[in-house]
TrEMBL record, chains A, B:
<dbReference type="InterPro" id="IPR009057">
    <property type="entry name" value="Homeodomain-like_sf"/>
</dbReference>
<dbReference type="Pfam" id="PF17939">
    <property type="entry name" value="TetR_C_30"/>
</dbReference>
<keyword id="KW-0805">Transcription regulation</keyword>
<dbReference type="InterPro" id="IPR001647">
    <property type="entry name" value="HTH_TetR"/>
</dbReference>
<dbReference type="InterPro" id="IPR041586">
    <property type="entry name" value="PsrA_TetR_C"/>
</dbReference>
<keyword id="KW-0238">DNA-binding</keyword>
<feature type="DNA-binding region" description="H-T-H motif">
    <location>
        <begin position="40"/>
        <end position="59"/>
    </location>
</feature>
<dbReference type="GO" id="GO:0000976">
    <property type="term" value="F:transcription cis-regulatory region binding"/>
</dbReference>
<feature type="domain" description="HTH tetR-type">
    <location>
        <begin position="17"/>
        <end position="77"/>
    </location>
</feature>
<dbReference type="GO" id="GO:0003700">
    <property type="term" value="F:DNA-binding transcription factor activity"/>
</dbReference>
<dbReference type="Pfam" id="PF00440">
    <property type="entry name" value="TetR_N"/>
</dbReference>
<dbReference type="InterPro" id="IPR050109">
    <property type="entry name" value="HTH-type_TetR-like_transc_reg"/>
</dbReference>
<protein>
    <submittedName>
        <fullName>TetR/AcrR family transcriptional regulator</fullName>
    </submittedName>
</protein>
<dbReference type="InterPro" id="IPR036271">
    <property type="entry name" value="Tet_transcr_reg_TetR-rel_C_sf"/>
</dbReference>
<keyword id="KW-0804">Transcription</keyword>
Amino acid sequence: MFVLEKQRQRAPSARSLQTRARILDAAEQFFAARGFEGASIRDIAKAAGVQGGLVAHHGGSKEELFHLIVARRAGELSRLRIEALETARACAPLNLGTILDCFVRPYVELAQGGDPRWVAYGRLVAHVSADPRWRDLAAECFDPTAQRFIAEIAALFPGAPPGTVAAGQVYAVSAMLAHVHSAWRIGALSPGSDAVGLDRLIAFCTAGVYAILTSDT
Amino acid sequence: MFVLEKQRQRAPSARSLQTRARILDAAEQFFAARGFEGASIRDIAKAAGVQGGLVAHHGGSKEELFHLIVARRAGELSRLRIEALETARACAPLNLGTILDCFVRPYVELAQGGDPRWVAYGRLVAHVSADPRWRDLAAECFDPTAQRFIAEIAALFPGAPPGTVAAGQVYAVSAMLAHVHSAWRIGALSPGSDAVGLDRLIAFCTAGVYAILTSDT
DNA sequence: CCTTATTTTGAACGGTCGTTCAACTTAAGA
DNA sequence: TCTTAAGTTGAACGACCGTTCAAAATAAGG
């Protein structure tokens, strides 16, 4: 899967970096909208305004390109979530609602902020989660942060079985993704602040996770 | 999208019905495993043991075939859910947990029962829900039953905003799908009964929906 | 300013895709 | 039994796929 790259002898030019960014952004949109097989290298190249061969030059094979796109966005989001967690911990002792807030809020605010790249990323995550083909990619990009939050929650509920904490995490993530990419099914977005919907989502997740962690069975 | 078909002049033979079923089942597996674009007519034909042209004869175009497969399974599941709801209503006044149980349990038991066709259907639903391309299909196949359950829940919480009930329904569905097709992320299935996991899922959904329906905001 | 690593082009390669269709086989209905 | 609608085959169509590569253009580093 991964071959070690030849050592660079020169710094990339500004133009090359811009081209690379255009290719990755275009690929992100097409992969998100049409899935891995549905997105074609030629469509991506045309949207980025380059020749097809250049996509391979900057992104490698189609699989490597997909991996690259998911990993770069996941890394940035992971950083934001961990930062939110540390900030919250510095203010007050963590509770369940705060922990889930730190996980859910960063992404939902990015996606609802209107940046099409983060909306696309949500669809990408949905594709990756739905297809067992991407199991390794999910494990690499999503699991470390998820494990971190699972550990925080488990520390609050010492008696809860580990599997139950993990289940709550998975359910919460799925509800978060549905909140973003199935918003049209919930109804037309309210013209005012979207924060109401976000708070409602976090309340749903918190109550659900709390219920299964404190149940007797 | 839909042309009116020529009137049949003869009943289909038993062999033809079997062939048709083999084609639809094979298509269901490939669409579920690889998505719409990832599944090829030739793979489906080979798995069904027929020539490629026969797939078009029984299933129409690729889009029509996809629609056919989702609709037939959705119709059957919808019937089971409504039956469960009516049975429960006959026994005792409905409450939130019972309503959600009637929605979630029929599918999860089918999928966890080991029938690969129902496991495949779960992945199909995930694909349909993740891709805006299938918005109309989702509206046709999923919304009527969802609306029915939303109405039942709304009747229990007269003061709750309609959008909040719909949000709870969408979150619950997403958690249910995650429970089935992301079970590997929650952990190895317990060797004993899977009903424990199902009860936990229903408890999660019930507590979450209840929380957002009774919140002040 | 040179040298040359890097970026970019343009075209081509072998395959696979969804779809179509004439010809052949099967079996329903009179 | 006979007619013929329906089922099935096998091959072909044009289009698009991911990938490769020699050659040209660009620009970093000495």
